[in-house]
Amino acid sequence: MIEVDGSYLEGGGAILRVATALSAITGKPVRVFNVRAGRSKPGLMTQHLESLKAVALLCSGRLDNAFTGSTEIEMHPGRIQPRDISVTIATAGAIGLLFQSVSAPICLADTDVRVSILGGATFARWAPPLPAIQRVLLPLLESMGYPAELEIARHGFFPKGGARVKITGHPSRYRRPLVLTEPGEASIVRGISVASTHLQKAQVADRQARAAGQTLGQAGLKAQVEREYVDAVCPGSGIVLWAETGARAIIGGDSIGERGKPSEQVGEEAANALIETVRSGAAVDEHLSDQLLLFMALAKGRSVITTPRLTGHAKTNMHVIKQFLPVEFEVKEDALVRIECSGSVN
């Protein structure tokens, strides 16, 4: 039984997601205590609970103490098997965070694995929006040997959620290391600005896109941002931008709409996030860096990435990964942060 302290560093849900994913992958049982001790409302919330159940179903595992508000859980994994599973999120919980829990296990079965999600939010605070996962993360994971698809049948926003999403993982045939140290030239930025049909009259998606394009243009970057109005249970919006470079890097920036927040500010925030990474000379934006660490650790070979700064999530993920896998992380902090991982031989 591997013991993981959920209060480590920021004490958030990332510890739970990485620990249970690695438990399923390695077959090692895990106990996570002090779950989300660093949050204003400690313990499992709905989205964490549903993520746990999804991982347990994928590996025919047994969960102990898995209920809303629980501050200590155990998972006793079985073997990852190809299957179709369904997840219901009754709140506006972030589907992007659930994806982080299942993204590696779903590619380690012998045949395809499908996860159908009803409910939850495609754009949520403190979580990667699903279009960012589609356009930035998934292409990099496929290059490493983790082919997966994410289909959005209906978007969901705070406070009601109501999304419909399907995640499909295809078997991983190899585990290539990732080397992304030079960003290359970002010749053009693409993007998608999304708003519910409730906000079409106010032209929210158009205003987000226009503001992003103007901000990028002032920084010398050309932009092509699509506008999309979608059916949703409640009003909401968000924008995702990405720049594909000649060096295989995909640099992203995103922002979500909130009540009282001008659409122009949403577009500017996403653009400025992308511009900051481009100007830093890093090949991976700071939010993407922590999402890649688990896959770097599972690769057969040495991976290395550069990112503008070392996030709390990245520090947390490295700490948890090393408790499950025989890997080492080397971090060099200078003008940029350089993260190297030895890779696992498992």
From TrEMBL:
Q: Name one GO biological process term.
A: RNA processing
Reported EC number(s) for this entry are 6.5.1.4
One Pfam family cited in the UniProt record for this chain:
RTC
Gene3D superfamilies in alphabetical order: RNA 3'-terminal phosphate cyclase domain, RNA 3'-terminal phosphate cyclase, insert domain
What cellular-component terms does GO give this entry?
A: cytoplasm
Q: Where this protein primarily resides, as one coarse class?
A: cytoplasm
Annotated RNA 3'-terminal phosphate cyclase domain ranges read 8-331
Show where the RNA 3'-terminal phosphate cyclase insert domain sits.
181-278
Question: Which keywords appear in this protein's UniProt record, sorted alphabetically?
Answer: ATP-binding, Cytoplasm, Ligase, Nucleotide-binding
Family matches, as SUPFAM superfamilies: EPT/RTPC-like, RNA 3'-terminal phosphate cyclase, RPTC, insert domain
Q: Where in the cell does this protein reside?
A: Cytoplasm
Question: A Gene Ontology MF term for this entry?
Answer: ATP binding
The active site of this protein is located at: H313 (tele-amp-histidine intermediate)
Q: Where is the signal peptide?
A: none
Instruction: Report the top EC class in one word.
Output: ligase
Q: What's the domain of life for this entry?
A: Bacteria
Presence of the UniProt keyword Cytoplasm in the record: yes
- Residues that bind ATP, according to the entry? Q100, H287, L288, S289, D290, Q291
The record's annotation in PANTHER family points to: RNA 3' TERMINAL PHOSPHATE CYCLASE (PTHR11096), RNA 3'-TERMINAL PHOSPHATE CYCLASE (PTHR11096:SF0)
Q: What does this protein do?
A: Catalyzes the conversion of 3'-phosphate to a 2',3'-cyclic phosphodiester at the end of RNA. The mechanism of action of the enzyme occurs in 3 steps: (A) adenylation of the enzyme by ATP; (B) transfer of adenylate to an RNA-N3'P to produce RNA-N3'PP5'A; (C) and attack of the adjacent 2'-hydroxyl on the 3'-phosphorus in the diester linkage to produce the cyclic end product. The biological role of this enzyme is unknown but it is likely to function in some aspects of cellular RNA processing.
> Which named protein is this?
RNA 3'-terminal phosphate cyclase
Q: Which organism is it from?
A: Abyssobacteria bacterium (strain SURF_5)
Q: What is the lineage of its organism?
A: Bacteria, Pseudomonadati, Candidatus Hydrogenedentota, Candidatus Abyssobacteria
